[in-house]
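User: Here's a chain of 255 residues. Predict its fold as tokens.
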Amino acid sequence: MQSNITPPDLAYFDPGDGRRIAYRYRPPTTGKPTVLFLPGYASDMEGAKAIAIDAFCGQREIGCLRLDYSGTGSSGGNFADGTLSRWVQEVLAAIDLVTDGPLILAGSSMGGWLALHAAMSRKDRVKGLLGIAAAPDFTNWGYSGEEKEALVRDGKLERPNPYGSEPSITWRGFWESGQAQLLLYNPIDLIIPIRLVHGEQDDEVPMGVPIKLMADLRSSDVQLRLIKNGGHRLSEPHELHAILVELLGLLERIA
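Assistant: Prediction complete.
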């Protein structure tokens, strides 16, 4: 039905301190779970993966929640004020204020890092997790020693943006927050079903990251799907199809 895949209206919530966080929420039918999509660093909820997941959920009467972190997309605030801990707090507020019932978290790139932290904080609600080119700990492995020194010295770091003409900026507050919330090389206390989708040619998140993540997760139900020649964005039609196949499998696991 066409009405099932019409995007939900834009709405806002306040996590408790006056922040204006934008979201789109499609409630599930009774008894069905909700998929919470978490975008990557400096991305928003209107990208191809977010829209594809929302349409997939709408066709199946599954709930879907998308949001923009403060300082991004349609949300209020300044991007320079964004930190990993601040955005995790916003994700948890969205879970608590907007949704009910079981959840599957689907995180893209940095959103995968946020999803892991959120899942550990809401173990009673989160029943599955989908990492899409997930980038846990990228403040650690994603920057050279010289770049880390520049962040501390200058307060920000500008690097070429592969997706646009404007440089990609990392602010020291975000980097320091990430360094305080590293996950890899320690047991990650999640025992839920987890699916990871990664591009073989991802030049932003090395292949060693999802492999190490698999090893560190306590769950025995973790699978990694590699996409030949896939890059970091994973937004081509066949890549979106692979993501949705993994999401369907998670839904079947928790049904």
